[in-house]
Amino acid sequence: MKKTILLKAIALMLILSSCSDDDGENLIDFTATFASATVSTTEEETSKEIVLNFSRSASEDGTITVSYSGDNAEYGTDFTTSPDGSSGTISVPVTSGDTNASFTFNKLTNAIEGTSKSVTFTIDGFSDADWSTGTTSSSLVSYTPIAATSGIIDTENGGSNQPNQVYFDFSTGVQTAVRRDLWEIGLYNGTENRVFLNASLSVSAVKLTGVTDLLSVTESSELPAPMELNALDAMFQPTTVNVSTVAELLVGLPVGYNQYGNLEAGISFTDSPEGTLEGTAFAEISTTAEENYVYLVSLGKEIPTEPAETGSINTTGDLRDIIKVRILSDGNSYTIQYADLNETTAFSEVTVPKDAAHNITAFSLTNGETVSVEPAKEEWDINLSGVFTYYGYQGPIAAGLTYSDYVVHNTLGGVGLYQVTIEGDVPTYANFTMADVDESALVYDNRAVVGSGWRDTFGGVVNTGRYYVLKDADGNYYKLNFTAYTSTEGERGHFQFTYERL
């Protein structure tokens, strides 16, 4: 039987190889399309990269000719481009193997208040007669912010190690990529005093109820009271453990199948996947200092540097340190006290004011400083976090779970989203219009509606039977459809999605 299967596989490979040739006759058509039909700029921005996406990798070198027309904008006075476009057109170079190309729009002036100013770029020709224009033939670059109408986005998650989180704003078409190991905790800037964990780095935390003296805690310390927790035994069967020392508790603190917890009793060492204020591993920080206890914090797992085999991922490396943390608040700021687990003489202390412009302020416990991670709360809609972890159920078993290719939406910033499953009379993505929007289906209290459900891990493809509808904080509606799971070379960690404003 195995020999028959092997012979069939070899025959199939021979058939496939005989169907290909150096002339690329069996390649799909090569088309170029603007990544976004509209591009916004702010007064502070002086340049913008304008991207052209290809339907496949270019099989030869060439150029794409782009023309332009200005609305209250003159070349050389209000803008220039790179490559140069003073002749009236821009020759954008294409190198064999490229999956996209780009040119730079350089803004020399700003729009006068109360007036419009923009430049429209249009695909005007190709050096290869077999190349053609795709779905979006032009892109309008506005000198003032406007809501984007559509786009095709290749995310910058960074490949099979998925080192980056990517924040995307539909109204501007801007993606912001940041390394996911820049921070461990996020301080909530709303009226409640809450602390979030970096789920993309597998950070976890456990409270030592009743303990307020940070320096009194070491690995050999006894717990104020024994804890009965759920666990999995060597055969991955549910069991219970009783821990009475810090050392025993640390065994089940890091995220993983051996992580301790008890969801029925409300005990979780991670934030909930929904991302609600009530679902944080840290209790709400009290303005009464004596009510804020010491936490043991696992700083997560390193980002590996060794790439995975084609089609696979390698996202979780060695376990990082475990430290002790105590956080206080006066309602307008947070004071973070922290030290190495076995430190008994001194601790570090940093005060961080609340910042109303952002949902959270990210803080690095490894470097002792705030770091820039999330864009302003009104300037992102979805976070393609890559890796995402939480303690929860996988079938009947509760454990610390790790997902890749994960997507969440900005519920703290007032963004709503729901999934459309294509069945029965439900319209396809292409046919979905504003008239089809179900306002009541929009979800504002669960950031994980998309999660990892947009792709089929075992098939290595996107799930074509679903797409998503999103309403941003400004009331703009968009439909969103994932179109790629890997790069053209098959490497994981290169997502692509298309969107359109309704």
Characterization of the model:
This protein is mainly beta. It has helices at residues 2-18, 246-250; strands at 31-34, 38-40, 47-54, 62-71, 79-82, 89-94, 100-107, 118-126, 132-133, 138-142, 150-154, 164-169, 174-179, 185-188, 195-197, 204-208, 222-232, 238-245, 294-298, 322-329, 333-340, 348-353, 360-364, 369-371, 382-394, 397-409, 416-421, 455-456, 461-462, 466-471, 477-486, 492-501. Among the domains are: 29-146, Sandwich (Immunoglobulin-like), CATH 2.60.40; 185-371, no CATH class. Helices cover 4% and strands 41% of the residues. It has a 5-stranded mixed beta sheet, with no helix packed on it. A hairpin with a 5-residue loop joins strand 31 and strand 32 (492-501). The protein is elongated.
Structural category:
mainly beta
Strand order of the largest sheet: 5-7-3-1-9
Question: Unreliable stretches, pLDDT < 50, 5 or more residues?
Answer: 1-25
Overall pLDDT metric: 89
Gyration radius (Cα, Å) is 26 Å
| N- to C-terminal distance | 54 Å
Shape verdict = elongated
The number of helical runs is 2
Largest sheet descriptor: 5 strands, mixed
What percent strand?
Answer: 35-45%
Briefly summarize what is shown.
This protein has 502 residues and is mainly beta.
